[in-house]
Amino acid sequence: MAPEAGKIEIENIVSPGHKHRVDRVKYEAMRDALLAVLPRAAPGLSVAEAKERLLPLLPQNLFPAGAKAGWWLKAVQLDLEAKGTIARVASKPLRLHKKA
User: Fold this and answer.
1) Listed residue (47, 3, 40, 43) closest to 23, CA to CA
2) pTM score of the predicted model
3) pLDDT per residue over 36-91, tens digit each?
4) What are phi and psi of 44, to 5 degrees?
5) pLDDT at 3 over 60
């Protein structure tokens, strides 16, 4: 198996065209958890609210006691925004929801 086989390429809405390769299993676990908690309509959830709700959904073997969940949440959030799967509401604090 190639060393990059367990990786996935993600985008960043803040830096268009800039891509990173990250662990596929952790990315998919965080993506699935985030999409499970985000509502379909604005105003959505703040990032802190989303994190609080998704932590219990994350596999403990990948995110023991929520370790590194904040970094992964931000990486997945920016990637899903770049792909048009989720949207942000420009408010303070920033709020997220699934795109219809």
Assistant:
1) 3
2) 0.92
3) 999 999 999 999 999 999 999 999 999 999 999 999 999 999 999 999 999 999 89
4) 75, -155
5) no
CB atoms within 10 A of CB 80: 23
Q: Is the CB of residue 84 less than 8 Å from the CB of residue 99?
A: yes
Residues contacting residue 34 through CB under 8 Å, at least 6 positions apart: 50, 54, 73, 76, 77, 80, 86
Write out the two tokens for 34.
């985030």
Q: Are 83 and 35 within 8 A, CB to CB?
A: no
Helix axes 24-37, 69-83, angle to 10 degrees: 80
